[in-house]
Each structure stands twice: as C-alpha cells, then as structure tokens.
Write a structure and sequence with these properties.
The protein is of the alpha/beta class and 314 residues long. The chain has 2 domains: 83 residues, Elongation Factor Tu (Ef-tu), domain 3 (Beta Barrel), CATH 2.40.30.10; 165 residues, Rossmann fold (3-Layer(aba) Sandwich), CATH 3.40.50. Helix content is 23%, strand content 29%. The protein contains 9 helices and 18 strands. The chain has a 7-stranded antiparallel sheet. The radius of gyration is 20 Å and the shape is globular. The relative contact order is 0.12. The structure holds flavin-adenine dinucleotide and FE2/S2 (inorganic) cluster (FES). The site of flavin-adenine dinucleotide has 20 residues, from strand 4, strand 6 and helix 1. The site of flavin-adenine dinucleotide (FAD) has 20 residues, from strand 4, strand 6 and helix 1.
Amino acid sequence: MDDFEITNPMYTNRIKKILEENYRIKSIEIEHDMIEAEPGQFLMVWIPGLGERPMSIANNRPLTISVANVGTVSGELHKLKQGEQISYRGPLGRPFDLGLQYKTELKCKTTQCVSTENSKFENKCDCCCGIDEASKQESGHPKLGTGNPKHILTIGGGYGVVPMYFLCKTAREHGIDAYAIIGGRCEKDVVYEKHLFVVCKEVFVTTDDGSRGKKGTVMAEFEWLIKEKKFDWVYTCGPEKMMKAIAEKCVELKIPCQVSLERHMKCGTGVCGSCAINGMLTCKDGPVFDAEQVLKFSEFGKVSRDGCGNRKEM
Ligand SMILES: Cc1cc2nc3c(=O)[nH]c(=O)nc-3n(C[C@H](O)[C@H](O)[C@H](O)COP(=O)(O)OP(=O)(O)OC[C@H]3O[C@@H](n4cnc5c(N)ncnc54)[C@H](O)[C@@H]3O)c2cc1C
Ligand code: FES
C-alpha cells in the first residue's frame, strides 16, 4: 500500500464562528485556512448518518460556507454551534478563471515600467495590470485566462452570491476592480450586500418587489450596466434561467462570461455520474463553465435531475 495516495481527504475541524446572514442563510467559519481553494470551487460537507452536500466556498481564509436551510442536511448544518466539529472534503471542481496564473508569470514588456513583481499585485503598476494588446480579441475584450482583466462584473442570485464574494475578494487582492449585482425576491432575501461593499468598487441590488434597491430582477441592472461600463469578463451564479439570460447577452455582446451550475451531486469527484449535464460532469468539468459551452447544453436552463436521475423541468 506504499503507493496509495489519498487525493481527496476528509477534514474535520472546529467551527470558529457562526453568522446569521438572514432568516434562512447562516455562514459557518471553520478553523482552517484552505489556501489552495479558488473562487468557484466547493466542499462536500458531511453530516454523519445523513450524507454529503456540495457547498460553495465563500472564503478560504478562514474557510467559510453559507448555508440556506432548505432540507435535511442543510437543516442539520444550521443546528451546529460554535466550537463543534464539521467534516468536509475539498476544494473540489473547476474554479472561476481570473487569469491569475498567467498574471504571476506576466513580465512587463514596456520600457517605462519600474514595477516589481509584487507591486503589480498592489495595483500600482497600470502597464502590468492593463490590457495586454496581444491577448485582445476582435471584440476588444481580453480572452478568458489571459490574466489581464481590469474590470469584472459578477451577478449573483439567492445563495449564488456566496461564490461571488470569494471571487470579488480575490479580484481585489490582485488589483482587479470588481462590480457586483445581487438579487433577491425581497429585502430579507438579499444577502452578502455588506460583505460585497468591502471588496467591490460598486454593488447594485435588485428585488422583485422593490423593497431594496431597484425593482425587478438582476437583469434590470445588468442590461444597462453592461452597456454603460466596459467590463472585461462577466461571472454569474444563481437561478439557471437568470444565468442563461446573462450568458446569452454576453455572447451576443462578445464579452467573455462564466457561469456556475448546480446539479445533484453524490461523490463530487467525477465517479458516480449523478451530476451529468449533456455528457459533462458538473462536479469535475464544472461547476464553472464558459458561457458559449453551457449554451450548447440542451438541459441548461430547462432540466435538472433528482438523486435518482429523474428529469425535473425548471
Ligand atoms: C456546486 C454546488 C454548490 C452549492 N452551494 C451551496 C451553497 O453555497 N449554499 C447552499 O445553501 N446550498 C448550496 N448548494 C445546494 C446544496 O448542495 C443542497 O442541494 C441543499 O443544501 C439542499 O440539501 P438538503 O439535504 O438540505 O435538502 P434535501 O433534503 O436534499 O432536499 C429537501 C427539499 O429541498 C429542495 N431543495 C434541494 N436543494 C434546494 C435548493 N438548493 N434550493 C431550494 N430547495 C432545494 C429539494 O427539492 C427538496 O424538496 C450547492 C449545490 C451545488 C451543486
Ligand atoms: S457527483 Fe459524482 S460524478 Fe459528479
């Protein structure tokens, strides 16, 4: 058994803090700095005797998840108290692309640049953090993965704002300006507004009934904002019909966009097949997919499946 390697270990750690985000969402901070975790990745959180559920990583330092109380496992997670233990595997899945790997390797080619590698990350050097001409597409937007966005837009609906916070926080740490649109049915459904204010340039709120922010869906802000300001890349997580509308608009305007999908997951590591969507595995190939790719999935925005694989119309 010498060459046996555990690639997906289960961690058990104490809960550092519990925060009530609203009437149905609690954040659980864990005594663990998961420095390798990237925005868009998730944990498989385990309640012994009941099972595991995927939860987006809301922050990696300290490791944090935000749980909506909607059923069996989420209900038990809501009963946990500070100081108690929680078990989980991760980080899992394909993260959002902020191009940071490329950025680390990027060497400034302009003669007037006096920056050091580190100053780029403090956003002092505009020529390093700016648009690299070579990576521009015909549309004027840099390609996803090329590591030089200056302005990004994130759109989150419901608990879809959770991974958006981690993304905006990471963007800020790397000198990228993040803007956020968050939506809910009414004021009490809006979460993470204050957290996002700390890490974003601007935060726009919408509610269906107008009780907070602009009245309407997130599309009410998205439609004008995407034309008004120049965003290099767009990211979204939330109800699938919302993500479909955003993905379609971005493809039409030729703005690179990524969406984070939610499907029923059992193993979280590409073994069981329960999270399949049009031949792709959401847990391994996703949960983050590029807009062009996901728009080709016939089930996107239309069909999900329950734990037994039965189709459920959205
Ligand atoms: C990649 C990924 C990331 C996720 N991130 C988060 C996260 O950050 N926070 C979070 O709270 N959840 C998240 N989820 C959803 C989560 O994994 C569970 O589906 C959810 O907690 C329900 O599990 P349960 O055992 O409590 O409910 P179950 O007992 O399995 O279901 C009980 C009832 O709730 C309904 N239900 C199940 N899931 C949902 C849902 N998501 N919304 C509304 N009703 C539902 C079911 O249809 C059923 O009627 C994520 C899912 C995926 C795939
Ligand atoms: S959850 Fe098992 S393959 Fe994705």
